Automatic annotation (TrEMBL):
Name of the protein described by the UniProt record: phospholipase D
Catalytic reaction(s) noted: a 1,2-diacyl-sn-glycero-3-phosphocholine + H2O = a 1,2-diacyl-sn-glycero-3-phosphate + choline + H(+)
Species per Swiss-Prot/TrEMBL record: Flavobacterium johnsoniae (strain ATCC 17061 / DSM 2064 / JCM 8514 / BCRC 14874 / CCUG 350202 / NBRC 14942 / NCIMB 11054 / UW101) (Cytophaga johnsonae)
Any single GO BP term: lipid catabolic process
Keyword Transport tagged: no
PROSITE patterns on file: PLD
Entry EC no(s): 3.1.4.4
Amino acid sequence: MAWLTDEDIIREITLKKISGVNVQIIISDAKENYVRIAKLKEYLKYAGVLSIGITKPFMHNKFAIIDDRFIINGSYNWSYGARSSEENIFIITLDKSVEEDTALLKKFQLQFQYLSHRVRAVSIADFEELNNFRQRIANPIAVISELDESEILLREEFEEAVKNSINNSLKANIQFDYTGLLQRMQKDGGGVEFVKRLINDEIQTGDMKSGFRKLQEPIPHRVDLSLEYLVSQERFQSLFEPRQVDFCLNLMKQYHL
């Protein structure tokens, strides 16, 4: 992958590694890949295999092979910026009984092996090596995609807003399992992913979570401290799917918020 900066994707790959799936990642030496490396460190923590292609010409490859059954290929870089771009991507389901599919798989496997064994490929085994590589790259902040950088910062701002809402709920004597919520948020990959899953559950079941119901109980209501209220705020709406935003906006209208 030429650019791998979407932390949600890195997190999902790491979860697959934790579950016992064998995972190998090859990324380019593009500076953008090493501005924020916390998720890559997490991947390495669980013995994920990471190689960096130091190549000339630049490694523009963008593909994945999954279980020798699926190929993901296209112009899509795995970055936040690509989410809002007009990108071409193909997900190919292979049938090994079909000769053409077997030949296609072999071509991608050979390409991956070629990239894995290029003379200048650097194998990254631990955090220290990753940090050292990052330090050798000059001024990465200057070249990172502005859209990626702004989304990462906005996600961090949202996560802080979630923590503030929980703290303010406790100050208002509305009891939450604060520690449990933080642990769940970390497990889900951060504030945005945590809230996405929560709201999806509410949409699918039609039942509000216990945290929201507790904020309904006081008179006056304190749903302004809810996670749903945060999603309804204009500055955070771009982090969520339209149906999630609409759900929260309609919910807040019931409370004239």
